[in-house]
Amino acid sequence: MVVKDKVINLILEFAQSEESVKAVMMNGSRVNSNAPVDIMQDYDVVFFVEHLESLKFKNNREWIKRFGEPVIVQQNDFDEGAAYIFLMQFDDFRIDLSFVSVDEIDESAKEDSLSLWLLDKDNVAPEIPAPNDSTYIIQKPDKETFEKMLNESWWMQPYVAKGIWRDELPYARNAYDKYFMDSIKSLISWDIGIRHNWSVNTGTAGKWFKNFMDEEEYKEFTTLYSSNDYEEIWEKLFLAGKFIRKIGTRVADELGYEYPMEYDVNVTEFLKKIRKDLKDN
Q1: What superfamily would CATH give domain 6-135?
Q2: What is the pLDDT of residue 76?
Q3: Rounded distance, CA 105 to CA 178, Å?
Q4: What is the pLDDT of residues 87-122, one digit of tens each?
Q5: Regarding the domain delimited by 138-280, which CATH topology (the fold level of the hierarchy) does it fall under?
C-alpha cells in the first residue's frame, strides 16, 4: 500500500530497522472508513516480534523518542507471556503500540475486524478481510441478557438515592454516571440495532449515538447526565425512569420480550418515598 501519513512512515521506519519486528498491524478508527477523521484519532499499532520475553524495549524508554518527545507515556504491567503495551501521547499525535509475540499472530489477526497489515517482512502475516465493523456491530440481546440489563437499570437507582440520603455525592455520582448510565446506553444501542437491522457500530461508550438517534430523543438522553445538585439529580433520576420505560418497552415489543413493569413501578414508588422522607427530615 502507498502510505503518505508521516506518523505511519515513522512507525514503519522503526519496524524496518528492528530485526525482531516481523510484522506490523494497525487497528482502530484509522482503518475504519465509517469513523470521523480528525487530529484526535490514535494510531493503534501492533508489532509482532520474536523473543518477546527478552525484548529490549520494555525496560528502556529511550526508543520512544524516535517518534518524538512524548508528553506522557503509560505502559502495562509486564506479565510473563503477555503483550507489552505502550500508550504514547506526543504533541501532534498519539500512538498506542503493542508488542506481541509473533507466535500469537494467527490468533491476534482474528480478534479485531478493524485491522490492516502495514508490514510483513517474512510472510508471517495471515490473510485477513478488508477492515470492517463486524467485531463492533451491535448484537441482538437474548431474553436473559435483556432481562438482566433492565434489572440493572432499576436496581442501580436506589444506590443513587442512598448516596443522596447520606450526603455522599461521589458515591451517588459514581452509581449514576457509571453503572446506571451504562445500562441506559445498552438499551439505546439495542433500540438503534433494531432500527438498523443489527448492522451498525455506535462506537465506544455510544460516542456515535448522535448519528443514529432522533434529534429530540438524543437531546433527551444527554440531559439525563447528572449534576452536583441533589435536587437536580432527583429530577434527572425520575426523567431517566421515564426514558427507560419508553425505550425499554419499545425494545421489548420489537424483540417479543416482556418489559419488567413490576421493577419500574416498585422502584419508582420507593424513590418517591425516599425523597419525601428526606424532605420531611
Answers
A1: Beta Polymerase, domain 2 (3.30.460.10)
A2: 86
A3: 35
A4: 999 999 999 999 999 999 999 999 999 999 999 999
A5: Four Helix Bundle (Hemerythrin (Met), subunit A) (1.20.120)
Residues 6+ positions from 127 with CB-CB distance below 8 Å = none
**DSSP structural state of residue 175:** I
Cell of 80: 510473563
Do the strands 72-75 and 84-89 form a parallel or antiparallel pair, or are they unpaired? antiparallel
**178: nearest Cα among 166, 163, 191, 194:** 163
